[in-house]
Amino acid sequence: MSKINKIAVFTSGGDAPGMNACIRAVVRTGIHFGCEMVGIKQGYQGMIDENFIPMNRHSVSNIMQLGGTILKTARCLEFRTEEGMEKAYQNLKKQGIQALVAIGGDGTFTGAERFSNKYDIPVVCVPGTIDNDLYGSDFTLGFDTATNTVIEAIDKIRDTAESHDRLFFIEVMGRDAGCIALRAGIAGGAEAIMLPEKDTAIEDLISTLEHGAANLKSSSIVIVAEGDKNGGAYNVAKRVKEKFDYYDTKVTILGHLQRGGSPSSFDRILGSRMGFAAVKALLAGQTRKMVGLHGNNIALTDLREALSGHEFKLEDDLMEMSSILA
Amino acid sequence: MSKINKIAVFTSGGDAPGMNACIRAVVRTGIHFGCEMVGIKQGYQGMIDENFIPMNRHSVSNIMQLGGTILKTARCLEFRTEEGMEKAYQNLKKQGIQALVAIGGDGTFTGAERFSNKYDIPVVCVPGTIDNDLYGSDFTLGFDTATNTVIEAIDKIRDTAESHDRLFFIEVMGRDAGCIALRAGIAGGAEAIMLPEKDTAIEDLISTLEHGAANLKSSSIVIVAEGDKNGGAYNVAKRVKEKFDYYDTKVTILGHLQRGGSPSSFDRILGSRMGFAAVKALLAGQTRKMVGLHGNNIALTDLREALSGHEFKLEDDLMEMSSILA
Amino acid sequence: MSKINKIAVFTSGGDAPGMNACIRAVVRTGIHFGCEMVGIKQGYQGMIDENFIPMNRHSVSNIMQLGGTILKTARCLEFRTEEGMEKAYQNLKKQGIQALVAIGGDGTFTGAERFSNKYDIPVVCVPGTIDNDLYGSDFTLGFDTATNTVIEAIDKIRDTAESHDRLFFIEVMGRDAGCIALRAGIAGGAEAIMLPEKDTAIEDLISTLEHGAANLKSSSIVIVAEGDKNGGAYNVAKRVKEKFDYYDTKVTILGHLQRGGSPSSFDRILGSRMGFAAVKALLAGQTRKMVGLHGNNIALTDLREALSGHEFKLEDDLMEMSSILA
Amino acid sequence: MSKINKIAVFTSGGDAPGMNACIRAVVRTGIHFGCEMVGIKQGYQGMIDENFIPMNRHSVSNIMQLGGTILKTARCLEFRTEEGMEKAYQNLKKQGIQALVAIGGDGTFTGAERFSNKYDIPVVCVPGTIDNDLYGSDFTLGFDTATNTVIEAIDKIRDTAESHDRLFFIEVMGRDAGCIALRAGIAGGAEAIMLPEKDTAIEDLISTLEHGAANLKSSSIVIVAEGDKNGGAYNVAKRVKEKFDYYDTKVTILGHLQRGGSPSSFDRILGSRMGFAAVKALLAGQTRKMVGLHGNNIALTDLREALSGHEFKLEDDLMEMSSILA
Cross-referenced InterPro entries, in alphabetical order (chains A, B, C, D) (predicted)? Predict the structure, then answer.
């Protein structure tokens, strides 16, 4: 394979705090190693629409502390078609782009894997999603910031819950993965946590809350992942209320609040390391890899393996602790 | 009137950040001037239930930075009856309590005014409510913190809105008063603000948004007070979406998040000044007054006047600015 | 006077949070009323160096939440000379700039007053300084945010002070004015506050601290304004330590941390209102005025009056409270 | 070994955010497994002074979000003597305390190792220190929060640095270990980082800054660990200033600000996991171990090994990135 001289970077799927730190690292690392760097706006859509912008060191100045992604992101149905892919490829070729860094979640990776296979263009992926639901990295980019955002919200709601002897149901992101719910629930001292990975019978939840009330807890907070099988916080609250009215009951849906905000130190470092490693991997001849955090090191995983359905598992001790410490 | 030697303080209605600063000031000022101080838990309910606690300087140590109220708060239907009031009065008498500081909103004040009139017990009220909807004070306790909480949320949501070219509808507190919506909307740079005080036709909102889209705004944020006449953020979003689908549309309801959090400097100072002034007013023989902020001074208003329906008005320049600056 | 069609805005002196909100309001209000708008970079220096940039609505998009000033600021000795002023004037004339909005402190105002007098160019000033030391406005732009920054620091230091039974001396900004020290001291629950406006004998401070220790306070925090006559926090700490070693003693100098940060809601609103009012005042034919907050209204003061040495006074009740509540 | 029925927990050395989460986990886990739990105030000093308090589930309610340590901490010279240790042991025996959880840094561990060896009392240690300088755990408790605190400060200082074209030297904690400096420097986008682990010649620093100035950087931030061999931020600033005066130069010493603050989600989870694991280890018959984070799992290390001088190493990729990304 000939030397890579021109690399493009893009973000795709849901935005996540830390993406800008990663873009900055990709651009500056590439330039450091002599490459020309390009940003693609709005992910795969931008490849098709020729939304390319040249990036130099200044293009990524003073962006590390910003939430979201300066390259924007979008979902793109057209890229799933043969024609869309072909158009994207011709546009990249026209630009002289020889390799890609893709930042996003599993949808992004699936597209990258197919595209790279078909057109033999090297691609390295960075797991950027607040959901922390990818195999091959202890943590995904944005998860730490999102969890901090959730516990700040829980801390605030605890103030008012305590003042009124209230029961709060707080719905957090996580359609398939309960990582945010589990960690934020423990870190926020929630009385109960409802996860997509685990069936919680409403009766069991009520008995937990009754136990707390009997122990004179003056307020209770229940964290509900949006993918919980009882149908979200409103439904859980309604069903609990029918049988247990010791407390005044309220519901809060945190929603997109969880995506934004200035990234935490952890996510800025993680994004920087991953972007740095992604470019180094491309220059070392790697392709179809995902960079990931393993312990305190960055390592590569085959994209196919990352995507092949290894189930992401919640940590056993966290699961055990969640009821013992509550 | 004989000298006051024993004063009780309580919080009632919705909790608000800064209430603890006020309780601390009431207790320490009272002690400084030689009074015995009592806290009543859960407002009027606590009077009826004899939920009294003696307060010394240490009782209020290290509470200024806490959201909520250490004395808790509750709504109390029983106090609206003659029997409830009588019971409360007998309990206060038994305790030797000679005067009251009541911290809360207009429901709290109405109760205080009736009670003080009937039993000739001096009472001074402190306007503690995040809604800023009381006559006789430029700002109510908790409003500044709540507004800061809302703009932090808007800033975060702006990150993700910008990354995705999205239109967000954010619902904020304010059933009758649009103060939070108006100020947070301006401070958060919202493209439009929907207030209870003002009819906004959906057509006008859409034309504002179309105008922004034509000017290449890559995202838009609309703040909706819960008391807006179109029926809240979900309804507004639904009706807008039917006719205007330039952006991907999302709704966030901030809810009780807005009540909590460590009070801002402004609210800590305001709570301290109001608590200090309330005790001094009682000791100077005042009764049935509300302390309020007028410019940069604390002044007293008759409770009756504060309650008599002077309509609270949104500032003219803010109303004018809200569309010009957006 | 002929109609004003082109207005320039600049920031000068120390930067303050909220300046960007003000710049945004000036630009958008001017455009709304049909003016051409110009930004001058680095204050008076930029006038001399012809550092002018045209401003449209987009130039001020998404800046409200940023600390500092996008127009930058600098001190400029040359502008104090006749030649410097003449050069600045000729440059403004060349640009067709007919009026100025100057955002800064009293140094900025002095320059603006002289310049406007000499060349008959209308100017309206906005008080932007974290020190809150200007006559003619209840609050200056940036003061609220700076005070919040200081109390967040005090809250953090309190954590560690409490854990170690320590005595902390925290130095805050305020060479001539103790506003930040007084308000942050009260809001942070400081045990003592040292102000430039008031001589505090070290012996009195020690006796206050001894009193606290005797009452089993497990930590103490003393706020020292940098202009305190005992010579700053290090000197105060040293002299206290010689005679009072009940606690382990530590010093923190907050320094420029106090200038930065995303502006509070209060400062965003204040900056917006002041910028809006400044442009309206210019268009109404006003000149050599300062806009200021009076109670909850914006009003104009003659620049000469604002500068004429009316001493800024700390609020009496705050002074009295500062020892009673500690 | 007979079954353990009564466990004591204490914090020692410098306080760190997350210690309260750990205390809470220790107490609740112990109670869950049928033990009686005791808190020792002020570490080893409290053992000698019989400063014991019984702990139940309520003793640790609502403490997870608090910085510092509710059990307080102190340095204790007396415990280093034979007599001090003997006294401590007799006091523990009198209380029926059969095992210890010690939360602190290497001073704490050294004491624990000697004590446990001498009196055959089981002890498990938790690495609680913001410096992240212990062998046997990827991260120590408090490090994540401290790093977040530092980058928030850098972000604020960047605002004012940018507005004034300034060069800032920010001194952060780290007498022997540059972990905070390295991570916060990268996450804050610092132009240069001075570490205890690495000699940086002032000439090299100046040439880095000159390079930045030549590339039109409008401000620069240099992070200096307190243990840097050039003698701290003031000295570095002074020496740079002598030869390079392109920018206006300022110094900020963050100091004890870095110790406080509500713990991050990461530290709350880490503290909870470590406390949980420490109690389980004791109940499983372990002693003289340190719990640590290895990747995403909690594992035990021999105290002797943790203390035996394995040098803690800064991550290679972070070292390499620190200059490439700046």
Answer: ATP_PFK, ATP_PFK_prok-type, PFKA_ATP_prok, Phosphofructokinase_CS, Phosphofructokinase_dom, PKF_sf
Low-confidence ranges of chain B (pLDDT < 50): 1
Structure confidence at residue D246 as a pLDDT band (50, 70, 90):
confident
Q: What is the 3-state secondary structure (H, E, C) of C126-163?
A: EEECCCCCCCCCCCCECHHHHHHHHHHHHHHHHHHHHH
Residue B311: its pLDDT value, please?
A: 63
CATH no. for residue D189?
A: 3.40.50.460
Residue D191 has pLDDT above 80, yes or no: yes
pLDDT tens digit sequence for D42-70: 999 999 999 999 999 999 999 999 999 99
Per-residue pLDDT tens digits for B239-278? 999 999 888 899 999 999 999 999 999 999 999 999 999 9
| Chains contacting A (3+ CB pairs below 8 angstroms) | B, D
Q: For the segment D292-314, what is each residue's pLDDT rounded down to a tens digit?
A: 999 889 999 999 999 986 666 78
Spans of chain A, pLDDT less than 50: 1
Residue D144 has its nearest CB partner, among A184, A265, A295, at A265
Q: If contacts are CB pairs under 8 Å, which of residues 7-26 in chain B contact chain C?
A: 21, 24-25
Q: Cβ neighbours of residue A41 under 8 Å, at least 6 residues apart?
A: A10, A51, A52, A53, A71, A72
Q: Which of A131, A144, A228, A267 is catalytic?
A: A131
Contact B159, A145 (CB under 8 A): no
ipTM here? 0.96
**Other CB atoms within 10 Å distance of the CB of residue D309:** 8
- Number of compact structural domains in chain B: 2
Inside any domain, residue D318 = no
In a shared domain, residues B135 and B15: yes
Q: Do B65 and C155 touch (CB under 8 A)?
A: yes
Nearest-angstrom CA–CA distance, D27 and D7:
9
Q: Phi-psi category of B39—alpha, beta or left, where left has phi over 0 and alpha has psi -120 to 50? A: beta
Residue A131 falls in the annotated catalytic set: yes
Chain A interface includes B73 (CB < 8 A): yes
pLDDT of residue A166: 93
Say if B250 is an interface residue toward chain A (CB within 8 Å).
Answer: yes
Residue of C nearest to B189 (CA): C64
- Does C253 contact chain D (CB < 8 Å)? yes
Do D153 and D272 sit in the same domain of this protein?
Answer: no
Give the residue from chain D lying closest to A57, CA to CA. Answer: D325
Domain enclosing residue D194, as ranges:
146-259
